[in-house]
Amino acid sequence: PEITLRLFLQASQVINNIDNNADLEDLAYDFISTSLIIYQDELSDSDEKLRAIKLIVSTISHLQWFDNDNYDTLASNAAQYCNKLLKKPDQCESITLSAHMFTNKRYENSGSLKKCFAKCLKTATAWMKDVENLYLLVNILNKYIYFYMVDTDQVTLSDITKLIDLIKENITQIKAEGKLERSKPSIKYFD
User: Fold this and answer.
1) Which of 89, 95, 136 is nearest to 112 (CA)?
2) Tens digits of per-residue pLDDT, 138-170?
3) What is the tens place of the pLDDT at every residue in 103-146?
4) Are 91 and 77 in contact (CB under 8 A)?
5) Which of 141, 143, 152, 145 is nearest to 187 (CA)?
6) Beta-sheet strands, E only, within the chain
7) Given CB 3.0 to 4.6 Å as the disulfide criterion, which of 5, 54, 123, 147 pairs with 155?
8) Rounded Cα distance, 172 and 123, in Å
């Protein structure tokens, strides 16, 4: 099923690269819809699901020729599947990636971008009980900085500062609990 899913996504990318592809929009929509169905019905292993949803989100975020309704439907469905991943760290990672679908060159949905980041922060903060998950906040910070630098109005310098403060607060707590060794890879830039 994973190979089939990849082939459907690659076929939609080929159509995306064809000039004058308006007649092929329905076919490409079917390819991506089918890949979402395969994801939902055929994949059961959590690692397979994570790899697949990353591919789906990456593919959708690069599409340039769907009408707004079709694009919004595909992007919303993919974002919902990101929310349903079994492991919370995987959820956070895939939702962070899905933010790119809502800042595509042609399709911008600032409300959905804000929702993605809010969900990521909520999930990451809830999982700070496991020190190893500090990288989730660092990953979100990287996305904040990326979207700030590409001039998305939805991420402000104030948002970045608040997130850095949250990370520093978690680092202080980790140090106080004596769990520093387990989170070294995530905190090396904050010491």
Assistant:
1) 95
2) 889 999 999 899 877 788 899 999 999 988 888
3) 877 777 777 888 888 888 888 888 776 777 788 888 899 999 99
4) no
5) 141
6) none
7) 147
8) 20
